[in-house]
C-alpha cells in the first residue's frame, strides 16, 4: 500500500487528459481522474522539480508511414519515428511570474535514443519553437500544449519547411491515437441500484454500464454471459423494464435459472461486472487500465477472473494493465504459462515497493524471479501456516 502502483497505472491518463483539454492550460483534473495540484503530483512536493514523463508508442498501422511517399522522401529516420516513437514531456512550475504550470519541452525520438528528431521548446510566455532535425526552427506565438499540436503546425507552415507538414501532423496524430485507446476502470465501482433511471444513465459508472448493455448486440451480451458463467456468477445478463423510464439489471442464476436483481446477488458481482462489460465492448487494440479487480471476490473467483481477463484480452486484441494485490491472480497467470496457454512474453510483472519499480521475469514453467519480489510477498500464508503448526504442536505437548 502507498508504494506508487496507482501512480504508474494512472500516468498515461494524465497525457490523455491534456490531449483533450479545452484550453492550453495544463490541468491535473479531468474526466478520467483528478490528480490534485502540481505540489500533489511532483516528487516529494518540491515545486522546483519538473515533472517528466517518457513513453514509447507503437504507431497505429492505419497511418501506414512506410507506404506514404511524402514521408519516405524525408528519409528512413522519419519513417522509423512514426513506426516506434518515444515521447518525452517536461512540465515546469513557474513560481516567479504566473504561478502556474507550463509544458516546457516536448520531444520525439526513435526507440531508446536520447537525441530528438523533433522537439518543441517553450521560449517564453506565449511562445515556443518547433525544431525538426536539419531544418530551420519554426516560431509559434502560443503556449506549448498538446491538444493543438497537430493543427498549430499546419497554421504556421508558411514560416518553415512546408514539406514537413504532413509528417508533423502524423506524428502528433500518433500520440492522439495512442491516448484515445486508453480505457480506465476505477478501483471502486458503484454500489448496485435496484432500478436505474434512463434519463440519468450518464451520471455514474453504473449508469454507463446500463447504457452499454442497452446498446450491446446479442453477440456482445453472449460474450458477457459466457464470462459470468466462467466466473460462476450468472449464466446470462439482461435489462428488465420496470416502469416508464426505469430499468433493472437482472442476472440468471447458473444453478436454479432464477432471475435476480443485481442488487440481490452479492456485492462482488457488481464490482466485477464493469470489468467484464468493458473488456467485451472496448475497441480492439485498446489498452485497458484496471485497478484492483479482485475487490470483494473470494480466492477462487479471483483466479477465475484472471482467466476471464486473459481470454478476453487474447480474443479481442486488448492490452491489460492490472494493478492488484492479489496473489491468486498472479498464481493463475503463472499456472497458465506453465500449461502453455500463455507465453512468458505475454505477461510482464512488476513489483512496486516504496517507489522502486522492479520487473520480475517469468520462466517457461511459470516460475517467477523471487529476487525481484519485495519482502513479505507470498510469505504471509506460509508464515501463518508454520506458526499455526508450531502452536498446535505446543498445545499437544502441553496437553499430554
The main pleated sheet reads as:
6 strands, antiparallel
Count every helix, treating DSSP H or I runs of 4 or more residues as helices: 12
Distance between the termini: 44 Å
Q: Tally of extended strands?
A: 15
Give the rounded overall mean pLDDT: 81
Uncertain residue ranges: 157-161
What structural category do the secondary elements indicate? alpha+beta
The shape is globular
Gyration radius, in Å: 25 Å
Strand content: 15-25%
How much helix is in the residues? 25-40%
Series of secondary-structure elements, N-terminal to C-terminal: HHEHHEEEEEHHEEHHEEEHEHEHEEH
State the strand order across the main sheet: 1-2-3-4-5-6
Describe the structure.
- The strands form four sheets. A six-stranded antiparallel sheet has the order 1-2-3-4-5-6.
- β5 and β6 form a beta hairpin.
- It has 400 residues and is α+β, with helices and mostly antiparallel strands.
- The protein has helices at 5-20, 38-41, 69-72, 76-83, 149-155, 165-180, 205-215, 218-230, 267-281, 299-316, 327-339, 380-399, and strands at 51-58, 84-94, 100-110, 118-124, 127-132, 138-140, 182-185, 196-197, 236-243, 246-252, 259-261, 287-291, 319-323, 349-353, 356-360.
- The model is unreliable at 157-161 (pLDDT under 50).
- The protein is globular and about 85 Å long.
- The protein has twelve helices and 15 strands.
- The longest helix has 20 residues, at 380-399.
Amino acid at each position: 500500500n502507498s508504494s506508487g502502483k496507482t501512480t504508474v497505472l494512472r500516468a498515461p491518463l494524465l497525457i490523455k487528459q491534456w490531449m483533450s483539454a479545452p484550453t492550453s492550460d495544463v490541468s491535473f483534473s479531468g474526466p478520467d481522474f483528478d490528480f490534485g495540484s502540481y505540489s500533489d503530483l511532483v516528487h516529494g512536493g518540491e515545486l522546483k522539480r519538473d515533472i517528466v514523463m517518457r513513453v514509447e508508442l507503437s504507431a497505429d498501422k492505419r497511418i501506414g508511414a512506410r507506404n506514404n511517399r511524402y514521408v519516405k522522401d524525408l528519409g528512413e529516420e522519419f519513417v522509423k519515428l512514426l513506426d516506434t516513437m518515444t515521447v518525452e514531456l517536461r512540465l515546469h512550475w513557474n513560481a516567479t511570474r504566473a504561478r502556474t504550470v507550463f509544458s516546457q519541452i516536448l520531444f520525439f525520438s526513435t526507440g531508446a535514443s536520447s537525441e530528438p528528431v523533433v522537439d518543441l521548446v517553450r521560449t517564453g510566455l506565449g511562445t515556443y519553437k518547433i525544431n525538426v532535425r536539419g531544418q530551420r526552427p519554426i516560431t509559434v506565438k502560443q503556449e506549448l500544449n498538446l491538444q493543438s499540436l497537430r493543427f498549430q503546425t499546419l497554421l504556421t507552415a508558411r514560416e518553415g519547411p512546408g514539406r514537413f507538414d504532413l509528417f508533423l501532423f502524423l506524428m502528433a496524430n500518433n500520440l492522439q491515437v495512442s491516448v484515445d485507446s486508453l480505457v480506465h476502470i476505477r478501483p471502486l465501482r458503484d454500489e448496485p441500484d435496484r432500478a436505474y433511471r434512463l434519463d440519468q444513465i450518464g451520471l455514474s459508472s453504473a449508469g454507463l454500464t446500463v447504457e452499454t448493455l442497452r446498446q450491446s448486440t446479442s453477440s456482445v451480451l453472449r460474450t458477457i454471459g459466457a464470462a459470468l458463467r466462467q466466473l460462476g456468477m450468472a449464466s446470462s445478463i439482461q435489462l428488465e423494464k420496470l416502469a416508464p423510464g426505469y430499468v433493472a439489471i437482472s442476472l440468471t442464476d447458473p444453478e436454479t435459472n432464477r432471475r435476480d436483481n443485481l442488487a440481490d446477488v452479492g456485492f462482488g458481482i457488481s464490482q466485477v461486472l464493469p470489468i467484464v462489460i468493458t473488456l467485451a465492448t472496448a475497441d480492439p487494440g485498446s489498452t485497458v487500465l484496471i485497478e484492483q479487480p479482485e475487490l470483494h471476490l473470494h480466492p477462487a473467483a479471483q483466479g477465475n477472473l484472471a482467466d476471464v481477463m486473459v481470454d478476453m484480452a487474447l480474443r479481442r486484441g486488448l492490452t491489460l494493465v492490472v494493478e492488484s494485490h492479489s496473489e491468486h491472480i498472479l498464481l493463475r497467470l503463472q499456472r497458465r504459462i506453465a500449461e502453455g496457454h500463455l507465453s512468458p512474453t505475454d505477461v510482464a510483472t512488476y513489483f512496486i515497493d516504496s517507489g522502486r519499480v522492479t520487473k520480475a521475469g517469468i520462466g517457461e514453467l511459470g516460475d517467477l524471479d523471487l529476487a525481484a519480489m519485495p519482502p513479505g510477498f507470498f510469505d504471509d500464508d506460509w508464515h501463518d501456516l508454520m506458526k499455526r503448526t508450531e502452536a498446535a504442536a505446543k498445545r499437544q505437548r502441553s496437553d499430554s
